[in-house]
Design a protein that fits this description.
The protein has one helix spanning 38-49; strands spanning 3-11, 20-28, 56-63. It is an alpha+beta fold.
Length: 65
């Protein structure tokens, strides 16, 4: 079963002067429908967007019904 979330986050490489901003709906196809904390959200987003976890700052994360 999947769950949809609205997300808004920025990513910035270490020592970079600029950042990339992302927002939109993501769909997770996992057994666990609960994401516990911002670190876990950053891990999921990093895997999905081919980024490093420590480069991500989550601004908003909300489950859609």
């Amino acid at each position: 079963m999947s769950a949809k979330y609205y997300t808004h986050f920025v990513s910035q490489e270490t020592d970079a002067l600029t950042y990339d901003e992302y927002h939109g709906v993501v769909e997770l196809n996992t057994r666990s429908q609960r994401i516990a904390d911002e670190r876990e959200i950053a891990q999921v987003l990093a895997r999905s967007f081919d980024l490093e976890e420590d480069e991500i700052k989550v601004l908003q994360w909300q489950r859609l019904h």
